[in-house]
Design a protein that fits this description.
This protein is α/β, with parallel strands linked by helices. The chain has a domain of 230 residues: Rossmann fold. Helices cover 46% and strands 17% of the residues. It is built from 13 helices and twelve strands. The longest helix is centred in the N-terminal third of the chain and has 21 residues. It is globular and about 55 Å long. InterPro entries: dTDP_Gluc_deHydtase, NAD(P)-bd_dom, NAD(P)-bd_dom_sf. GO terms for molecular function: dTDP-glucose 4,6-dehydratase activity. Its EC number is 4.2.1.46.
């Protein structure tokens, strides 16, 4: 296929590109990325060196730009779109929701409309479990769980999901929505929990944990997620929603303690900070439908996946130092001070 991947310089998008080029020999991929603070061309430097101009092409563009999206789809005769492009950090969405509406809602609509006009064969929209809201102590999210987002970020993703549904129902558009639990793995920007805690633990700094640390997440290695997204692209049912989960429910406090043990650092580094507004208590994904229809299930358990991630960070000090921009550090420090 000739695939347009949006947000391919980000964390999950770049891992997806490695999956595609590691498993197929014929696909042509066009990577569209706006290159915000979290989009890093260094994430895919080796792919660029090996495939650029033959099977890989890069376009510096915004998915909210209608002319750019139409031009790119037509120029490369794109057959399928995988939409990873999104503003995704909950704390930033609380600080300023506007960019989340612009990219996640307006950008998705622009991409959908350009794809519809182009006569696309496949469109996979990558979403999140956060659109479902928060769970109690029991049960799991299914694809039929009502949407109940509790942050500006998750609300913007839920709106985008509904736009995909509307295009499927109104225009018979070949759209698929995937929803996934918390990702971790190589190339994750260090404002997210695991890389942030890794960096602070390694430096001997306090590790800020929201509230009592009892918020529970279902963690999935990014390689498992990307394998699932690619399976949905190639074998998914148009109009379907597919959940992906890691079968790895742990509280934030348990996760931080596990990371500290693997780094041989003391738990005394943990510091509890005021909880953030609208903090969902628990997420857990039921991926029964995905397993039944696509044959997918997670393969990497949390303990091994976390150790592999820590090892990767340890082997990529140069990458870590380059992505830790002053703007990133200033935002995170200011945010935690307010907490």
């Amino acid at each position: 296929m000739r695939i347009l991947v949006t947000g391919g310089c980000g964390f999950i998008g770049s891992n997806y590109l490695y999956h595609v080029f590691g498993t197929t020999n014929e696909d042509v991929v066009v990577n569209v990325d706006k290159l915000t603070y979290a989009g890093n061309p260094a994430n895919i430097a080796s792919l660029t060196e090996q495939y650029e101009g033959s099977r890989y092409f890069f376009e510096h563009a915004d998915i909210a730009d209608p002319e750019a999206m139409q031009r790119i789809l037509e120029t490369y005769d794109i057959e399928a779109v995988v939409n990873f492009a999104a503003e995704s950090h909950v704390d930033r969405s609380i600080d300023d929701p506007a960019p989340f509406v612009t990219t996640n809602v307006q950008g998705t609509q622009v991409l959908l409309e350009a794809s519809r006009r182009h006569g696309l064969k496949r469109f996979v929209h990558v979403s999140t479990d956060e659109v479902y809201g928060s769970l109690g102590p029991e049960g799991k999210f299914t694809e039929d769980t009502p949407l109940a987002p509790n942050s500006p970020y998750s609300a913007s993703k839920a709106a985008a999901d509904l736009l995909v549904r509307a295009y499927v129902m109104t225009y018979d558009f070949p759209g698929i929505v995937t929803r996934c639990s918390n990702n971790y793995g190589p190339y994750q920007f260090p404002e997210k929990l695991i890389p942030l805690m890794y960096l602070k633990a390694r430096a001997g700094e306090h590790l800020p944990v929201y509230g009592d640390g009892g918020n529970i997440r279902d963690w999935i290695h990014v390689a498992d997620h990307c394998r699932g997204v690619d399976t949905a692209l190639r074998h998914g049912r148009p109009g379907a929603i597919y959940n992906f989960g890691g079968d790895a429910e742990v509280s934030n406090l348990e996760l931080v303690k596990l990371l500290l043990r693997q780094l041989d650092r003391p738990e005394s580094l943990i510091r509890f900070v005021t909880d953030r507004p609208g903090h969902d208590r628990r997420y857990a994904m039921d991926y029964t439908r995905t397993h039944k229809e696509l044959g997918w299930q997670p393969q990497i358990n949390l303990e091994h996946g976390l150790q592999a991630t820590i090892d990767w960070y340890g082997q990529h000090d140069h990458w870590l130092s380059e992505v830790q921009s002053g703007a990133y550090r200033q935002f995170m420090d200011r945010w935690y001070e307010r907490r």
